[in-house]
Amino acid sequence: MNLDDKSLFLDAMEDVKPLKDCSSSQWLKPVKEKAPRKIDALQLDNFLTIGFLEIVPLATQLEYKREGLQIGVLDKLRLGKYSQEASLNLLRQPVEQCRQLLFAYIQQAKQDGLRNLLIVHGKGREDRSHANVVRSYLARWLMEFEEVQAFCCAMPYHGGSGACYVALKKSAQAKLDNWERHAKRSR
User: What is the full DSSP assignment across 93-127?
Assistant: First the structure.
């Protein structure tokens, strides 16, 4: 510290007075302001519906195939032939939390170029159980995503009827990579 810095510091501290008694605990705790709840930008665009729900009976297997998808893809998905690249656990979560988690999960999977997912939702013992309500909403929500090509119940070692496999569309990059791989073979 040179003389100019020292003199500037002393000038700045000229009217500062030391505290008289620092030993007592008379410090006031800062009042906690209720911080505004941070809303993820993705959640603002969450289009998943909530409202009237037709409960899917427990005896009904969850299964969906978008028009144009080959039946062989659904068969392989049903048999667990595709390796699961990511999983989401919705067990014992409130319905709104499940809605938000699923939306963020699918968006992230799409961004990461993932194709095959596992979602554990539970199934409960009664049609009106919480787990079956989540399961029923999940069936509706997955159909609302353009990216979801198909979904079906998982194999027993992945959760059986308390979980489902989800197949997403190929990303533009994956399509290009696939095209290039096949183009090289035909030369």
Answer: --HHHHHHHHHHHHHHHHHHT--EEEEE----SST
pLDDT tens digits along 4-51: 778 887 888 888 777 665 554 444 444 444 443 444 544 568 888 888
> Closest Cα to residue 165, out of 107, 128, 94, 114?
114
Q: What is the DSSP string of 142-170?
A: HHH-TTEEEEEEPPGGGTGGGEEEEEEPP
Domain map of the chain by residue range? 63-172
**Amino acid, res. 14:** E
8-state DSSP, 69: -
- Against a cut of 0.90, is the pTM above it? no
Tokens of 68: 């144009």
Residue range 63-172 in CATH 3.40.640.10: no
